[in-house]
Specification:
The chain has a domain of 138 residues: Endonuclease III, domain 1, CATH 1.10.340.30. It is 47% helix and 2% strand. It has 9 helices and 2 strands, in the order ββααααααααα. The protein has a two-stranded antiparallel sheet with strand order 1-2. Strand 1 and strand 2 form a beta hairpin. The longest helix has 17 residues. One of its GO terms (molecular function) is metal ion binding.
Length: 202
C-alpha cells in the first residue's frame, strides 16, 4: 500500500489525515478508518486475514477487499473447522467461482491453512502464535517511505507458521498481516488513526 505521488499523509475532505492509499477510494478509506490496525484476537478472524493476505500477493489490496464478501460466502465465513473439511468438490466449486480470485495454489493453501489452524490448537493455537511475535517497539513512520515491509518479528512468524504447515506466509505477507491486525502500528504519526489499536501510544 504505497503511493509514489505523496509520501506523507493526505488532508482529506473531512479534515482528517490519512495515508495516500486510504485517502481516495471510499472502500479503502472505510477499511482504514474502521478496521486496519485494530487488534484481531480470535482464531476465525486471524485465519481469514492470513487467507486474504495470501490471495493479495501480486494484486492490490483493493481487489481483495472488494471480493471479501464473496470470499466469506465461498469459504463458509472462514470458520476453520468447516474449511478444513472441504473436499475436491469444494475445490472445483471455488475454482469455478468468478467472484473469487481463481488461483489454484492460493485456494489449496486456504484449505490447507484451515487444517493447519485446527491442528495448531494442540500447541497453543493460532492467536497465541501470531501475538507472541509482537515486538517490544513499533515503527514511528512520518512518511510512507519510512514504513518497513518486513521485520525480524515477521520473519520469525513466517518461519513458525511454515513449521506449523501454513502456506503463502512469507515474511512480507506476515508483516502486512501484523499491520492489519494491530500487532504493530505503522499508521503515519500524524494520521488520525495513529494509536487506534489501544496497544501502542500515539
Amino acid at each position: 500500500m504505497r503511493d509514489s505521488e505523496n509520501d506523507g499523509t493526505v488532508l482529506c475532505d473531512d479534515g482528517l489525515r490519512r495515508p495516500p492509499w486510504a485517502a481516495r477510494d471510499p472502500l479503502l478509506r472505510e477499511y482504514y478508518d474502521t478496521e486496519w490496525g485494530v487488534p484481531v484476537r480470535d482464531e476465525t478472524g486471524l485465519y481469514e486475514r492470513i487467507v486474504l493476505e495470501g490471495f493479495q500477493a501480486g494484486l492490490s489490496w483493493a481487489t481483495v477487499l472488494r471480493k471479501r464478501p464473496a470470499f466469506r460466502e465461498a469459504f463458509a465465513g472462514f470458520v476453520p473447522d468447516v474449511v478444513a473439511a472441504f473436499d475436491e468438490g469444494d475445490r472445483q466449486r471455488l475454482l469455478s467461482d468468478a467472484a473469487l480470485i481463481r488461483n489454484a495454489a492460493k485456494i489449496d493453501a486456504a484449505v490447507h491453512n484451515a487444517r493447519a489452524t485446527v491442528a495448531l490448537r494442540a500447541h497453543g493455537g493460532l492467536v497465541d502464535l501470531v501475538w507472541s511475535h509482537r515486538p517490544e517497539r513499533t515503527p514511528e513512520p512520518r512518511t510512507m517511505s519510512e514504513v518497513p515491509t518486513v521485520s525480524p518479528e515477521s520473519e520469525a512468524l513466517a518461519r513458525d507458521l511454515k513449521k506449523a504447515g501454513f502456506r503463502f506466509v512469507g515474511p512480507t505477507t506476515m508483516f502486512a498481516l501484523m499491520e492489519a491486525v494491530g500487532v504493530v502500528d505503522t499508521h503515519l504519526m500524524d494520521s488520525h488513526r495513529r494509536g487506534c489499536s489501544g496497544i501502542w501510544p500515539r
